[in-house]
Sequence to fold (407 residues):
Amino acid sequence: MSANFDAIKRRYNIIGFDPALERAIDIAVQVAATDLAVLVVGESGVGKENFPKIIHDNSSRKQGKYIAVNCGAIPEGTIDSELFGHEKGAFTGAVEARKGYFEVADGGTIFLDEVADLPLATQVRLLRVLENGEFIRVGSSKVLQTNVRVVAATNVNIADRIAKGKFREDLYYRLSSVIIHLPALRERREDIYPLFVKFASDFSAKYHCPMLTLTDDAIEELKNYRWPGNIRQLKNVTEQISILEKNRTIDAAALKPYLVSPTGTNLPALVRTETDSNENFQREILFKFIAELQREISELKNVVNHLVNGTMPEPHNVPLKEYPLEDNELDYQITRATVPDKNMPEPHFEEPIIIEDSDLSLGTLNKAAIIKALERHNNNRKLAAEELKISERTLYRKIKEYKLNDK
Ligand SMILES: Nc1ncnc2c1ncn2[C@@H]1O[C@H](COP(=O)(O)OP(=O)(O)OP(=O)(O)O)[C@@H](O)[C@H]1O
Ligand SMILES: [Mg+2]
Fold:
Protein backbone atom coordinates (compact mmCIF):
# COMPACT_ATOMS: atom_id res chain seq x y z
CA MET A 1 0.00 0.00 0.00
CA SER A 2 1.28 3.40 -0.88
CA ALA A 3 0.90 6.35 1.49
CA ASN A 4 -1.83 8.92 1.04
CA PHE A 5 0.69 11.75 1.10
CA ASP A 6 -1.81 14.58 1.27
CA ALA A 7 -3.62 13.17 4.29
CA ILE A 8 -0.39 12.45 6.13
CA LYS A 9 1.13 15.82 5.33
CA ARG A 10 -2.01 17.56 6.53
CA ARG A 11 -2.17 15.55 9.73
CA TYR A 12 1.46 16.13 10.70
CA ASN A 13 1.84 19.62 9.27
CA ILE A 14 4.45 18.44 6.81
CA ILE A 15 5.15 20.80 3.94
CA GLY A 16 7.06 19.64 0.89
CA PHE A 17 6.81 17.78 -2.39
CA ASP A 18 10.34 16.53 -2.66
CA PRO A 19 10.48 12.91 -3.89
CA ALA A 20 12.93 11.90 -1.14
CA LEU A 21 10.58 13.31 1.51
CA GLU A 22 7.62 11.46 0.01
CA ARG A 23 9.67 8.30 -0.19
CA ALA A 24 10.45 8.66 3.53
CA ILE A 25 6.74 9.04 4.33
CA ASP A 26 5.96 6.04 2.16
CA ILE A 27 8.52 3.87 3.97
CA ALA A 28 7.20 4.99 7.36
CA VAL A 29 3.65 3.99 6.46
CA GLN A 30 4.72 0.69 4.96
CA VAL A 31 6.85 -0.40 7.92
CA ALA A 32 4.29 0.79 10.44
CA ALA A 33 2.36 -2.46 10.14
CA THR A 34 5.42 -4.50 11.10
CA ASP A 35 7.26 -4.52 14.40
CA LEU A 36 10.61 -3.77 12.79
CA ALA A 37 12.92 -1.31 14.54
CA VAL A 38 13.30 1.86 12.50
CA LEU A 39 16.16 4.34 12.57
CA VAL A 40 15.42 7.84 11.29
CA VAL A 41 18.55 9.65 10.16
CA GLY A 42 19.25 13.09 8.79
CA GLU A 43 20.89 16.36 9.72
CA SER A 44 19.68 18.44 12.60
CA GLY A 45 16.38 20.22 11.91
CA VAL A 46 15.23 18.15 8.91
CA GLY A 47 12.01 17.00 10.55
CA LYS A 48 12.86 13.59 12.01
CA GLU A 49 10.50 13.91 14.96
CA ASN A 50 7.32 13.44 12.94
CA PHE A 51 8.32 10.02 11.70
CA PRO A 52 8.13 7.88 14.85
CA LYS A 53 4.66 9.34 15.38
CA ILE A 54 3.60 8.50 11.82
CA ILE A 55 4.84 4.95 12.36
CA HIS A 56 3.04 4.59 15.70
CA ASP A 57 -0.24 6.10 14.49
CA ASN A 58 -0.32 3.81 11.46
CA SER A 59 0.53 0.65 13.37
CA SER A 60 -1.60 -1.85 15.25
CA ARG A 61 -0.09 -0.33 18.41
CA LYS A 62 -1.82 2.99 17.89
CA GLN A 63 -4.13 2.42 20.88
CA GLY A 64 -1.06 1.72 23.01
CA LYS A 65 1.27 4.28 24.54
CA TYR A 66 3.69 6.39 22.54
CA ILE A 67 6.62 7.62 24.59
CA ALA A 68 9.30 9.92 23.19
CA VAL A 69 12.56 9.93 25.10
CA ASN A 70 15.34 12.39 24.40
CA CYS A 71 18.37 10.28 25.22
CA GLY A 72 20.66 13.28 24.89
CA ALA A 73 18.88 15.26 27.58
CA ILE A 74 18.79 12.68 30.36
CA PRO A 75 21.84 12.65 32.65
CA GLU A 76 23.92 9.50 32.47
CA GLY A 77 23.28 8.70 36.14
CA THR A 78 19.51 8.41 35.75
CA ILE A 79 18.97 7.15 32.23
CA ASP A 80 18.84 3.43 33.14
CA SER A 81 16.26 4.10 35.78
CA GLU A 82 14.23 6.32 33.46
CA LEU A 83 14.18 3.69 30.73
CA PHE A 84 13.95 0.50 32.75
CA GLY A 85 12.65 1.61 36.16
CA HIS A 86 14.10 1.05 39.62
CA GLU A 87 13.32 -0.69 42.87
CA LYS A 88 12.86 1.12 46.15
CA GLY A 89 16.26 1.86 47.69
CA ALA A 90 18.15 1.18 44.44
CA PHE A 91 20.03 4.46 44.89
CA THR A 92 19.92 7.49 47.16
CA GLY A 93 16.61 9.18 46.55
CA ALA A 94 14.85 6.06 45.24
CA VAL A 95 12.23 6.23 47.98
CA GLU A 96 9.74 4.27 45.94
CA ALA A 97 9.87 1.70 43.18
CA ARG A 98 9.18 3.19 39.76
CA LYS A 99 8.35 1.78 36.38
CA GLY A 100 10.56 2.81 33.47
CA TYR A 101 9.42 3.83 30.01
CA PHE A 102 9.90 0.32 28.61
CA GLU A 103 7.53 -1.07 31.21
CA VAL A 104 4.98 1.73 30.85
CA ALA A 105 4.99 1.52 27.04
CA ASP A 106 4.25 -2.23 26.99
CA GLY A 107 2.12 -2.76 23.88
CA GLY A 108 3.10 0.62 22.44
CA THR A 109 6.00 2.45 20.85
CA ILE A 110 9.08 4.15 22.26
CA PHE A 111 10.87 6.85 20.31
CA LEU A 112 14.53 7.06 21.30
CA ASP A 113 15.60 10.47 20.06
CA GLU A 114 19.32 11.29 19.83
CA VAL A 115 20.00 7.60 20.38
CA ALA A 116 23.73 7.97 19.66
CA ASP A 117 24.06 9.76 23.01
CA LEU A 118 23.16 6.67 25.03
CA PRO A 119 25.91 5.58 27.44
CA LEU A 120 27.48 2.20 26.65
CA ALA A 121 26.04 0.52 29.75
CA THR A 122 22.53 1.57 28.71
CA GLN A 123 23.21 0.32 25.20
CA VAL A 124 23.73 -3.16 26.64
CA ARG A 125 20.35 -3.06 28.39
CA LEU A 126 18.70 -1.72 25.26
CA LEU A 127 20.16 -4.47 23.12
CA ARG A 128 18.69 -7.06 25.45
CA VAL A 129 15.21 -5.58 25.45
CA LEU A 130 15.32 -5.32 21.66
CA GLU A 131 16.42 -8.92 21.28
CA ASN A 132 13.93 -10.68 23.53
CA GLY A 133 11.85 -8.07 25.35
CA GLU A 134 13.69 -8.72 28.62
CA PHE A 135 14.82 -6.05 31.03
CA ILE A 136 15.68 -5.61 34.69
CA ARG A 137 14.79 -2.64 36.86
CA VAL A 138 17.78 -0.89 38.46
CA GLY A 139 18.42 -2.46 41.87
CA SER A 140 16.52 -5.65 41.02
CA SER A 141 17.52 -9.07 39.78
CA LYS A 142 14.09 -10.07 38.52
CA VAL A 143 13.83 -10.32 34.76
CA LEU A 144 10.70 -8.63 33.39
CA GLN A 145 9.15 -8.78 29.94
CA THR A 146 7.81 -6.03 27.73
CA ASN A 147 6.55 -5.75 24.18
CA VAL A 148 7.66 -2.42 22.78
CA ARG A 149 8.37 -1.25 19.27
CA VAL A 150 11.40 0.99 19.08
CA VAL A 151 11.92 3.84 16.64
CA ALA A 152 15.16 5.76 17.08
CA ALA A 153 16.59 8.91 15.54
CA THR A 154 19.99 10.47 15.25
CA ASN A 155 21.62 13.41 13.52
CA VAL A 156 25.15 12.13 14.01
CA ASN A 157 27.14 9.69 11.98
CA ILE A 158 26.77 6.47 13.95
CA ALA A 159 29.47 4.70 11.92
CA ASP A 160 31.84 7.27 13.29
CA ARG A 161 30.68 6.57 16.86
CA ILE A 162 31.10 2.84 16.28
CA ALA A 163 34.64 3.41 15.01
CA LYS A 164 35.42 5.40 18.15
CA GLY A 165 34.02 2.66 20.39
CA LYS A 166 31.19 4.85 21.62
CA PHE A 167 28.34 2.95 20.03
CA ARG A 168 27.84 -0.81 19.88
CA GLU A 169 27.77 -2.15 16.38
CA ASP A 170 25.37 -4.97 17.31
CA LEU A 171 22.94 -2.41 18.74
CA TYR A 172 23.19 -0.33 15.58
CA TYR A 173 22.11 -3.33 13.47
CA ARG A 174 19.26 -4.06 15.87
CA LEU A 175 18.00 -0.50 15.73
CA SER A 176 18.28 -0.10 12.00
CA SER A 177 16.24 -2.95 10.52
CA VAL A 178 14.80 -0.15 8.41
CA ILE A 179 16.54 3.19 7.87
CA ILE A 180 14.56 6.28 6.93
CA HIS A 181 16.80 8.99 5.57
CA LEU A 182 15.50 12.54 5.53
CA PRO A 183 17.11 14.88 3.03
CA ALA A 184 18.76 18.12 4.07
CA LEU A 185 16.88 21.25 3.09
CA ARG A 186 19.60 22.19 0.60
CA GLU A 187 18.89 18.90 -1.17
CA ARG A 188 15.24 19.83 -1.63
CA ARG A 189 15.43 23.46 -2.69
CA GLU A 190 11.99 23.49 -4.29
CA ASP A 191 10.47 23.00 -0.83
CA ILE A 192 12.21 26.03 0.67
CA TYR A 193 9.81 28.71 -0.54
CA PRO A 194 6.60 26.76 0.29
CA LEU A 195 8.01 26.20 3.79
CA PHE A 196 8.77 29.90 4.12
CA VAL A 197 5.20 30.78 3.08
CA LYS A 198 3.76 28.32 5.61
CA PHE A 199 5.89 29.68 8.46
CA ALA A 200 5.27 33.32 7.44
CA SER A 201 1.54 32.63 7.53
CA ASP A 202 1.80 30.90 10.93
CA PHE A 203 3.81 33.76 12.45
CA SER A 204 1.57 36.40 10.94
CA ALA A 205 -1.30 34.74 12.81
CA LYS A 206 0.73 34.20 15.96
CA TYR A 207 1.95 37.78 16.23
CA HIS A 208 -1.08 39.42 14.61
CA CYS A 209 1.06 41.16 12.03
CA PRO A 210 0.71 41.44 8.24
CA MET A 211 2.14 38.51 6.37
CA LEU A 212 5.64 38.81 4.93
CA THR A 213 6.18 38.63 1.20
CA LEU A 214 9.45 38.08 -0.61
CA THR A 215 10.64 39.74 -3.79
CA ASP A 216 11.88 37.44 -6.57
CA ASP A 217 15.51 38.11 -5.75
CA ALA A 218 14.85 37.32 -2.08
CA ILE A 219 13.25 34.01 -3.06
CA GLU A 220 16.37 33.18 -5.08
CA GLU A 221 18.56 34.13 -2.11
CA LEU A 222 16.49 31.94 0.19
CA LYS A 223 16.72 28.99 -2.19
CA ASN A 224 20.46 29.32 -2.72
CA TYR A 225 21.40 29.54 0.95
CA ARG A 226 22.98 26.44 2.52
CA TRP A 227 20.57 26.08 5.48
CA PRO A 228 22.93 24.25 7.85
CA GLY A 229 20.17 24.19 10.47
CA ASN A 230 17.64 23.01 7.88
CA ILE A 231 13.90 23.51 8.45
CA ARG A 232 14.34 24.53 12.09
CA GLN A 233 16.64 27.35 10.97
CA LEU A 234 14.25 28.40 8.19
CA LYS A 235 11.47 28.55 10.75
CA ASN A 236 13.59 30.59 13.18
CA VAL A 237 14.69 32.98 10.44
CA THR A 238 11.09 33.47 9.31
CA GLU A 239 10.06 34.16 12.90
CA GLN A 240 12.85 36.68 13.39
CA ILE A 241 11.96 38.52 10.19
CA SER A 242 8.26 38.41 11.09
CA ILE A 243 8.98 40.13 14.38
CA LEU A 244 11.73 42.51 13.43
CA GLU A 245 11.07 43.83 9.93
CA LYS A 246 8.63 46.73 9.73
CA ASN A 247 8.63 46.67 5.94
CA ARG A 248 6.69 43.49 5.17
CA THR A 249 8.09 43.13 1.64
CA ILE A 250 11.50 41.59 2.01
CA ASP A 251 14.05 41.94 -0.74
CA ALA A 252 17.39 40.16 -1.02
CA ALA A 253 19.26 42.94 0.76
CA ALA A 254 16.91 42.83 3.74
CA LEU A 255 17.04 39.03 3.85
CA LYS A 256 20.78 38.52 3.62
CA PRO A 257 21.74 39.49 7.18
CA TYR A 258 19.50 36.74 8.53
CA LEU A 259 21.29 34.08 6.53
CA VAL A 260 24.40 33.57 8.59
CA SER A 261 26.55 30.57 9.32
CA PRO A 262 26.28 28.95 12.76
CA THR A 263 29.59 30.57 13.66
CA GLY A 264 28.45 33.96 12.44
CA THR A 265 26.68 36.69 14.32
CA ASN A 266 24.33 35.86 17.13
CA LEU A 267 21.33 37.86 16.11
CA PRO A 268 21.94 39.03 12.60
CA ALA A 269 18.90 41.15 12.04
CA LEU A 270 19.49 43.28 15.06
CA VAL A 271 23.04 44.15 14.18
CA ARG A 272 22.69 44.80 10.55
CA THR A 273 24.51 48.08 10.70
CA GLU A 274 27.07 46.82 13.19
CA THR A 275 30.13 44.68 12.68
CA ASP A 276 30.12 41.02 13.73
CA SER A 277 32.51 41.72 16.53
CA ASN A 278 30.13 44.02 18.34
CA GLU A 279 29.10 41.36 20.82
CA ASN A 280 28.07 43.65 23.63
CA PHE A 281 25.73 45.49 21.37
CA GLN A 282 24.13 42.22 20.32
CA ARG A 283 23.80 41.04 23.87
CA GLU A 284 22.26 44.27 25.01
CA ILE A 285 19.67 44.15 22.27
CA LEU A 286 18.97 40.51 22.92
CA PHE A 287 18.35 41.20 26.59
CA LYS A 288 16.09 44.09 25.68
CA PHE A 289 14.19 41.78 23.41
CA ILE A 290 13.83 39.18 26.15
CA ALA A 291 12.74 41.87 28.60
CA GLU A 292 10.10 42.94 26.11
CA LEU A 293 8.86 39.36 25.82
CA GLN A 294 8.73 39.06 29.61
CA ARG A 295 6.74 42.28 29.81
CA GLU A 296 4.25 40.93 27.29
CA ILE A 297 3.98 37.67 29.19
CA SER A 298 3.23 39.48 32.43
CA GLU A 299 0.61 41.55 30.65
CA LEU A 300 -0.89 38.37 29.30
CA LYS A 301 -1.02 36.95 32.81
CA ASN A 302 -2.87 40.08 33.77
CA VAL A 303 -5.45 39.49 31.04
CA VAL A 304 -5.91 35.90 32.16
CA ASN A 305 -6.29 36.91 35.80
CA HIS A 306 -9.01 39.31 34.78
CA LEU A 307 -10.72 36.61 32.77
CA VAL A 308 -10.54 34.16 35.64
CA ASN A 309 -12.09 36.78 37.89
CA GLY A 310 -14.82 37.38 35.33
CA THR A 311 -13.84 40.96 34.48
CA MET A 312 -12.24 42.40 31.40
CA PRO A 313 -8.86 44.06 31.78
CA GLU A 314 -8.36 47.77 31.38
CA PRO A 315 -7.84 48.66 27.72
CA HIS A 316 -4.22 49.57 28.32
CA ASN A 317 -3.65 46.05 29.57
CA VAL A 318 -4.58 44.42 26.27
CA PRO A 319 -1.74 45.33 23.95
CA LEU A 320 -0.89 41.71 23.49
CA LYS A 321 0.09 40.43 20.14
CA GLU A 322 -0.15 36.75 20.88
CA TYR A 323 -1.29 33.95 23.08
CA PRO A 324 1.33 31.30 23.69
CA LEU A 325 0.46 28.24 21.72
CA GLU A 326 1.98 24.90 21.04
CA ASP A 327 3.71 24.44 17.71
CA ASN A 328 1.02 22.19 16.36
CA GLU A 329 -1.70 24.65 17.30
CA LEU A 330 -0.43 27.25 14.88
CA ASP A 331 -2.68 26.09 12.09
CA TYR A 332 -5.82 26.61 14.09
CA GLN A 333 -5.17 30.06 15.38
CA ILE A 334 -5.42 32.02 12.19
CA THR A 335 -9.01 32.97 12.91
CA ARG A 336 -8.40 33.72 16.56
CA ALA A 337 -9.57 37.05 17.91
CA THR A 338 -7.16 39.54 19.43
CA VAL A 339 -9.26 40.00 22.54
CA PRO A 340 -9.78 36.68 24.26
CA ASP A 341 -13.24 35.32 24.76
CA LYS A 342 -14.46 32.79 27.24
CA ASN A 343 -14.63 29.97 24.67
CA MET A 344 -10.96 30.18 23.96
CA PRO A 345 -8.83 27.48 25.56
CA GLU A 346 -7.09 29.02 28.51
CA PRO A 347 -3.35 29.37 28.35
CA HIS A 348 -1.48 27.80 31.27
CA PHE A 349 0.96 29.81 33.28
CA GLU A 350 1.79 27.54 36.18
CA GLU A 351 4.81 26.21 34.33
CA PRO A 352 7.72 28.58 33.74
CA ILE A 353 7.45 29.92 30.22
CA ILE A 354 10.34 28.53 28.26
CA ILE A 355 11.65 29.64 24.93
CA GLU A 356 12.15 26.32 23.16
CA ASP A 357 14.66 25.36 20.50
CA SER A 358 12.36 26.46 17.79
CA ASP A 359 12.28 29.93 19.22
CA LEU A 360 14.64 32.80 18.88
CA SER A 361 16.93 31.57 21.63
CA LEU A 362 18.66 28.99 19.49
CA GLY A 363 21.86 30.38 18.17
CA THR A 364 21.42 33.54 20.13
CA LEU A 365 22.72 32.29 23.43
CA ASN A 366 26.35 32.90 23.81
CA LYS A 367 28.86 30.85 25.67
CA ALA A 368 29.71 33.52 28.22
CA ALA A 369 26.08 33.93 29.27
CA ILE A 370 25.77 30.17 29.78
CA ILE A 371 28.98 29.92 31.78
CA LYS A 372 27.92 32.83 33.99
CA ALA A 373 24.46 31.37 34.60
CA LEU A 374 25.95 27.98 35.48
CA GLU A 375 28.44 29.62 37.84
CA ARG A 376 25.73 31.66 39.50
CA HIS A 377 23.71 28.53 40.13
CA ASN A 378 26.58 26.32 41.17
CA ASN A 379 26.23 24.21 38.02
CA ASN A 380 22.56 23.54 38.71
CA ARG A 381 21.34 23.22 35.13
CA LYS A 382 17.68 23.50 35.95
CA LEU A 383 18.13 26.87 37.65
CA ALA A 384 20.58 28.08 35.01
CA ALA A 385 18.13 27.12 32.23
CA GLU A 386 15.33 28.96 34.03
CA GLU A 387 17.45 32.07 34.34
CA LEU A 388 18.41 31.91 30.66
CA LYS A 389 14.75 31.33 29.76
CA ILE A 390 15.53 28.23 27.76
CA SER A 391 14.58 24.61 28.27
CA GLU A 392 16.94 22.30 30.12
CA ARG A 393 17.22 20.34 26.93
CA THR A 394 18.49 23.36 25.02
CA LEU A 395 20.95 24.07 27.81
CA TYR A 396 22.26 20.49 27.61
CA ARG A 397 22.78 20.89 23.93
CA LYS A 398 24.58 24.17 24.37
CA ILE A 399 26.78 22.69 27.11
CA LYS A 400 27.69 19.89 24.76
CA GLU A 401 28.18 22.20 21.81
CA TYR A 402 30.48 24.50 23.77
CA LYS A 403 32.15 21.52 25.50
CA LEU A 404 31.43 23.01 28.92
CA ASN A 405 31.10 19.55 30.46
CA ASP A 406 34.80 19.26 31.04
CA LYS A 407 35.01 22.52 32.98
N1 LIG B 1 8.26 19.16 6.29
C1 LIG B 1 8.04 20.03 7.28
N2 LIG B 1 7.07 20.96 7.15
C2 LIG B 1 6.88 21.88 8.11
N3 LIG B 1 7.60 21.97 9.24
C3 LIG B 1 8.57 21.07 9.41
C4 LIG B 1 8.86 20.06 8.46
N4 LIG B 1 9.89 19.32 8.89
C5 LIG B 1 10.25 19.86 10.06
N5 LIG B 1 9.47 20.90 10.38
C6 LIG B 1 9.62 21.75 11.57
O1 LIG B 1 11.02 22.00 11.71
C7 LIG B 1 11.41 21.94 13.08
C8 LIG B 1 12.52 20.93 13.26
O2 LIG B 1 12.04 19.62 13.05
P1 LIG B 1 12.44 18.42 14.01
O3 LIG B 1 12.37 18.86 15.43
O4 LIG B 1 11.66 17.23 13.64
O5 LIG B 1 13.96 18.25 13.59
P2 LIG B 1 14.95 17.03 13.87
O6 LIG B 1 15.24 16.41 12.56
O7 LIG B 1 14.40 16.17 14.94
O8 LIG B 1 16.26 17.81 14.37
P3 LIG B 1 17.31 17.42 15.53
O9 LIG B 1 18.18 16.33 14.96
O10 LIG B 1 18.09 18.66 15.75
O11 LIG B 1 16.52 16.99 16.73
C9 LIG B 1 10.15 21.62 13.87
O12 LIG B 1 9.61 22.83 14.35
C10 LIG B 1 9.25 21.00 12.84
O13 LIG B 1 7.89 21.22 13.15
MG1 LIG C 1 14.89 16.02 16.97
User: Anything to note?
Assistant: The chain has a mean pLDDT of 80. The chain is about 40% helix and 10% strand. Residues 5-183 form a domain with the Rossmann fold fold (CATH 3.40.50.300).
